[in-house]
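S.,

Sequence below, as promised.
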Amino acid sequence: MNAEIIAVGSELLLGQITNTNARYISSQLAELGVNVYYHTVVGDNAERLKQAIELAESRADLIIFSGGLGPTKDDLTKETIARHLGTELVMDQTAMLSIEAFFQRVNRPMTENNKKQALVLDGCKVLENKNGMAPGMLYSHGNHTYILLPGPPKEMEPMFQLEAKPLLATLLNHGDIIVSQVLRFYGIGEAELETKIMDLLETQTNPTIAPLASDGEVTLRITAKTTTEEEAQRLIHETQQLLLSRVGDYLYGYNDDSLASSTTKLLIEQGLTISAAESLTAGLFQSELAAIPGVGSTLLGGMVTYAVDAKVNQLGVSREIIEQYGVVSAECATAMATQVKTMFKSDIGVALTGVAGPLELENKPAGTVWIAIILPNDEVVTHELHLSDMRNTNRLRAVKRTLHYLIQLLTRNKSL
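The prediction came back faster than expected:
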């Protein structure tokens, strides 16, 4: 089955919001073995939407829409599809009761146009919206299947995952099951990784291997299709072992893991605490860790010491070190990590200092970063980075590199 995703909304074309829905839906369809060859974005215009539907029908079996199911006049997705397919819109009573209950719950009057959200294509399979008001739909007509989903990601993602995806799996697989495993890598580029596993990519059948890169990270999705869960897991394990024999040194996690979650997991497993002193990243390292549930048992705290005086007066870095070596130096980073480790009585101290950019500092070009990690045995590990002149990209990449180094250290020496 081939699919096309049509995102509806003028705000997408104007750049007011990012089309994250297409990315999410594509990743979910990949797990089902559905090919996605086109992403289309169209504004809130019935005629242009009709043209987009006709074009999609000429090249896809499955057409998935996101957006345009709301109560306002410019929400016209289902009306346009109904006219195009020659079907009617009917009131779904379950959805209507849910909408009425919402307004009663928040003690607000329900305007007449909200009833529009409960209209669905006659004969469709209604997809319940547990996080909003407008229901989704799955509708088959001729040789095509149409899925209509709400635009807000907090409504669309759970609806697709819990309602639409199981229905699609039933339509597609006729008793077979599809199981996927994602391997996550850092510290190796997509091109280098692909070169190391090219023969496996060229000869893949079942399971399939799909690479994907994003800002320094690379993932490999292994997908097996068979009749039992056990057989699928066996096939995935065999392929995974082949891949890791080539690029296993760069593996940091699986599936929904992130660099921050993998770091946190290792710290908790080993009963270690951590603190951080940040200059150019201004708290971003601690923020990434703080996004992970359970991090409170390992992240004790830290300091943002952006200015020289803050490094000296608040953190206690020797002014002589800064005068002799500068703030963009291994010596300054080491002093910052040592001081924060002592201050918070943590097992590990981390420091990041450098030149975010785009201007140079201390005759050091933008993107020059020093990272220091003080281990429980007081061993000092430092790394110098040479990144780009893009300020916020440098800050994020410095944080990711720091997490990557911590994962390597914690993985290789469980007895720190």
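The CA atoms of residues 288 and 308 lie 24 Å apart.

Coffee later?
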